[in-house]
Amino acid sequence: MRRPVRRGSYPYGLLVPVARVATGTAAEEVRSFLDLCGIRSTTAPCPRRRRSPWRLQVLVFAKDAGRARRLVNEWTLPAGPG
Questions:
Q1: What pLDDT shows up at residue 71?
Q2: Contact between residue 55 and residue 47 where contact means Cβ atoms under 8 Å apart
């Protein structure tokens, strides 16, 4: 039997967001980078907010969140082709 979701609880259980991105390609780049660093990740839609450019969020297990945030904040997405 499923437990009801309480108001204000986080919908992804043990996963927490470490980055928000505008495109699926950017999300895959972040995920590939985290994978190279030994951190498993996944993506989920961002909560809807008015005029927000962020469509997707990259999620990791809570135990890896601090390290993942530091790595992502220090890393720059590679420039696209051309």
A1: 94
A2: no
d(CA 55, CA 62): 21
Q: What is the mean pLDDT of each successive set of 10 residues along the chain, which is 82 residues long? A: 53 88 94 96 88 90 95 74 55
Q: How far apart are CA 71 and CA 81, in angstroms?
A: 23
Q: What topology is assigned to 15-74 in CATH?
A: Alpha-Beta Plaits (3.30.70)
Q: In whole angstroms, give the CA distance from residue 10 to residue 71.
A: 23
Any idea what DSSP says for residue 7? T
Taken in order 39, 44, 49, 54, is the CA torsion positive or negative? positive
Give the residue extent of every domain in the chain: 15-74
